[in-house]
């Protein structure tokens, strides 16, 4: 999704801004631009494609200056062209970058055209810069003009603004889209993501909803939504969790797959004792664990799949009803909330627009409490939820979520066990057995990763495939959905997932010799049922790829490719069986030569609706 970087310094900021944009590349974008403010005025370069194309422009026509704003654009209104790339200008003097969507842009555009403004792009963003320009006609102070203009906007925005002849201050604001201020020495910065500024500072101020900030070289003044000056706390970034280096790995995604044993161990740390899940993991206010009688889980994409697995755990272990819904649907319907319901959100980024909107809506619906299972401690979701359980996966750069998913599952299993125990649904022995299983989880995941070379060989069979079908039963169905999503995202192969028992109700019609069918087959009570479903596929010539546990009785045979996955306790099967599907998608994408870490059309953090 779009990214913002801004800087005001004693030194030339061009390199700082370009490096910031490179650090934002992982979020997904299709064009970029930089505006630099110097004695001559505000000058900009824009380019379609990778940030490297923008850097090339700076090579051939350098722009120097001590203040500037920069942007990576993920197209929403208007194609990815240079004209639509930010910064956008009003006249030659005023430049602006924007993340988010202005919902009333059509009305504003009509009004501004009547006032004589000419539009150079198809973007919703351009209305903001003209509105500020128009406000400057009656209010010459840039800060106040920005505040006045923002009052006309409906929708979500994070912006940074620079004006010619105002070389001493940069104005930025947020509502609905994240923005962070980077604090330096005689220089200050602003960005949509702190990762964009880690090369220049490790001190950050997270702006709140409705904040407007004035940055000078030695001062940061934050005005809240009521226009009151506020002292916001400074947080120091922990560099141990900076993941912006691929190390020995060819792609971030592979690095993140390999990090899973380590980050799952971090997720468990301090949350389980020798034989118990610790209720203190949820903070001082853990009474909800005992009181809860119903759970609504709301999330998007991969996080939604994690929620679907949790439904099986919660209903099985804690014996209370649990429903799971995608946030974009939940937020637009009337929801019936049974008494003592927990509202549980799942999000890697904590900035997903639909999940945030759903959580804000849920706050008015009488839930017992709102709990966020999230990977980013400084995110809006964490700050606005009543309770939080952090997944501690560290920064995830690959657009295709891997370690964020398995740590979400780990946190969800901790939560399910804690609720079951507090509600008296778990015997002591069962509680101990579950905790012992959890303790072994990092080593099981490590053993599954060791299948990497074997899975790489299998991936070659997908080089010329255009479709794939994933099958699973029970909690393996959401794992099949997640496997299909991974394959779609990074290899662009059309993939669908079904509960294996549904096959004969329709999708079997798709099966012929050209259709690969991928399934994860743990050795559990559903195995025989699954095997019958697979027979139905084989009988129609479908090529089977089975990732099965020991003693499932599968073997390599004509039309059957079999990879063995280590045995694990049944409750852990969804987590461990995710690994081969992640590795398969990764290697298929490499075979197909796609952009693994930044797949086309996708963004890491979906901050617009
Ligand atoms: C996963 O591979 C995706 N890139 C995507 O589905 C993601 O999980 C979804 O956008 C939700 O993001 P969040 O977890 O940051 O809320």
Automatic annotation (TrEMBL):
<dbReference type="GO" id="GO:0005829">
    <property type="term" value="C:cytosol"/>
</dbReference>
<dbReference type="GO" id="GO:0046349">
    <property type="term" value="P:amino sugar biosynthetic process"/>
</dbReference>
<keyword id="KW-0963">Cytoplasm</keyword>
<dbReference type="InterPro" id="IPR017932">
    <property type="entry name" value="GATase_2_dom"/>
</dbReference>
<dbReference type="GO" id="GO:0004360">
    <property type="term" value="F:glutamine-fructose-6-phosphate transaminase (isomerizing) activity"/>
</dbReference>
<dbReference type="InterPro" id="IPR035466">
    <property type="entry name" value="GlmS/AgaS_SIS"/>
</dbReference>
<keyword id="KW-0677">Repeat</keyword>
<feature type="domain" description="SIS">
    <location>
        <begin position="458"/>
        <end position="599"/>
    </location>
</feature>
<comment type="function">
    <text>Catalyzes the first step in hexosamine metabolism, converting fructose-6P into glucosamine-6P using glutamine as a nitrogen source.</text>
</comment>
<feature type="domain" description="SIS">
    <location>
        <begin position="284"/>
        <end position="425"/>
    </location>
</feature>
<dbReference type="InterPro" id="IPR035490">
    <property type="entry name" value="GlmS/FrlB_SIS"/>
</dbReference>
<dbReference type="Pfam" id="PF13522">
    <property type="entry name" value="GATase_6"/>
</dbReference>
<dbReference type="Pfam" id="PF01380">
    <property type="entry name" value="SIS"/>
</dbReference>
<dbReference type="GO" id="GO:0006487">
    <property type="term" value="P:protein N-linked glycosylation"/>
</dbReference>
<feature type="active site" description="Nucleophile; for GATase activity">
    <location>
        <position position="2"/>
    </location>
</feature>
<dbReference type="GO" id="GO:0097367">
    <property type="term" value="F:carbohydrate derivative binding"/>
</dbReference>
<comment type="subunit">
    <text>Homodimer.</text>
</comment>
<keyword id="KW-0808">Transferase</keyword>
<dbReference type="GO" id="GO:0006047">
    <property type="term" value="P:UDP-N-acetylglucosamine metabolic process"/>
</dbReference>
<dbReference type="InterPro" id="IPR047084">
    <property type="entry name" value="GFAT_N"/>
</dbReference>
<keyword id="KW-0315">Glutamine amidotransferase</keyword>
<keyword id="KW-0032">Aminotransferase</keyword>
<dbReference type="InterPro" id="IPR001347">
    <property type="entry name" value="SIS_dom"/>
</dbReference>
<dbReference type="InterPro" id="IPR029055">
    <property type="entry name" value="Ntn_hydrolases_N"/>
</dbReference>
<feature type="active site" description="For Fru-6P isomerization activity">
    <location>
        <position position="604"/>
    </location>
</feature>
<dbReference type="InterPro" id="IPR046348">
    <property type="entry name" value="SIS_dom_sf"/>
</dbReference>
<dbReference type="GO" id="GO:0005975">
    <property type="term" value="P:carbohydrate metabolic process"/>
</dbReference>
<protein>
    <recommendedName>
        <fullName>Glutamine--fructose-6-phosphate aminotransferase [isomerizing]</fullName>
        <ecNumber>2.6.1.16</ecNumber>
    </recommendedName>
</protein>
<dbReference type="GO" id="GO:0006002">
    <property type="term" value="P:fructose 6-phosphate metabolic process"/>
</dbReference>
<feature type="domain" description="Glutamine amidotransferase type-2">
    <location>
        <begin position="2"/>
        <end position="218"/>
    </location>
</feature>
<dbReference type="InterPro" id="IPR005855">
    <property type="entry name" value="GFAT"/>
</dbReference>
């Amino acid at each position: 999704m779009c990214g913002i970087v801004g800087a005001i310094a004693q030194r030339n900021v061009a390199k700082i801004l370009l490096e910031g944009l490179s650090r934002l590349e992982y979020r997904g974008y299709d064009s970029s631009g930089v505006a630099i403010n110097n004695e001559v005025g505000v000058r900009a370069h824009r380019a379609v494609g990778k940030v490297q194309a923008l850097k090339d422009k700076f090579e051939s026509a350098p722009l120097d200056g001590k203040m500037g704003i920069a942007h990576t654009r993920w197209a929403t209104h208007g194609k990815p062209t240079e004209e639509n790339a930010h910064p956008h200008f009003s006249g030659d003097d005023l430049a602006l970058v924007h993340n988010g969507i202005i919902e009333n842009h059509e009305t504003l555009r009509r009004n501004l055209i009547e006032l004589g403004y000419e539009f150079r792009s198809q973007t919703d963003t351009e209305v903001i810069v003209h509105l500020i320009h128009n406000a400057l006609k009656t209010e010459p102070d840039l800060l106040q003009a920005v505040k006045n203009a923002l009052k006309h906007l409906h929708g979500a925005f994070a912006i940074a603004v620079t004006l010619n002849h105002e070389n001493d201050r940069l104005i930025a604001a947020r509502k609905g889209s994240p923005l962070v201020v980077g604090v330096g020495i005689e220089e200050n910065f602003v960005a949509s993501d702190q990762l964009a500024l880690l090369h220049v500072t490790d001190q950050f101020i997270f702006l709140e909803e409705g904040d407007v900030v004035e940055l000078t070289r030695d001062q940061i003044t934050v005005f809240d939504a009521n226009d009151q000056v506020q002292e916001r706390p400074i947080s120091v970034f922990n560099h141990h969790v900076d993941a912006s280096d691929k190390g020995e790995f060819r792609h971030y995604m592979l690095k993140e797959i390999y990090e899973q044993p380590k980050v799952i161990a971090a997720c468990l740390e301090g949350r389980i004792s020798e034989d118990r899940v610790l209720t203190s993991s949820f903070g001082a206010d853990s009474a909800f664990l005992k009181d809860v009688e119903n759970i609504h889980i709301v999330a998007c994409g991969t996080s939604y799949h994690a929620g679907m697995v949790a439904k099986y755990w919660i209903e099985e272990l804690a014996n209370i009803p649990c429903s799971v819904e995608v946030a974009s649907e939940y937020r637009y319907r009337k929801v019936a909330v049974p008494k003592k319901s927990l509202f549980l959100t799942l999000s890697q980024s904590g900035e997903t627009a639909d999940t945030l909107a759903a959580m804000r809506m849920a706050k008015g619906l009488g839930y017992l409490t709102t709990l966020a299972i999230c990977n980013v401690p400084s995110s809006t979701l964490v700050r606005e939820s009543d309770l939080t359980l952090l997944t501690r996966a560290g920064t995830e750069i690959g657009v295709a979520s891997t370690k964020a998913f398995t740590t979400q599952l780990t946190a969800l299993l901790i939560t399910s066990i804690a609720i079951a125990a507090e509600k008296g649904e778990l015997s002591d022995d069962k509680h101990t057995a579950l905790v012992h299983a959890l303790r072994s989880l990092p080593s099981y995941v490590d053993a599954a990763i060791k299948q990497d070379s074997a899975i790489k060989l299998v991936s070659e069979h997908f080089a010329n495939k255009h479709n794939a079908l994933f099958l699973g039963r029970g909690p393996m169905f959401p794992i099949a959905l997640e496997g299909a999503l991974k394959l779609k995202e990074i290899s662009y192969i059309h993939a669908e997932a079904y509960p294996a028992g549904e096959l004969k109700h329709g999708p079997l019609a798709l099966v012929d010799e050209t259709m690969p069918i991928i399934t994860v087959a743990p050795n559990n009570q559903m195995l025989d049922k699954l095997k019958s479903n697979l027979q139905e596929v084989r009988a129609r010539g479908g090529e089977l790829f089975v990732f099965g546990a020991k003693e499932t009785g599968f073997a390599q045979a004509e039309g059957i490719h079999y990879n063995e996955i280590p045995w694990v306790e049944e409750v852990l099967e969804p987590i461990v069986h995710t690994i081969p599907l992640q590795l398969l998608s990764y290697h298929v994408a490499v075979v197909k030569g796609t952009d693994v870490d930044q797949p086309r059309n996708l963004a890491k953090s979906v901050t617009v609706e």
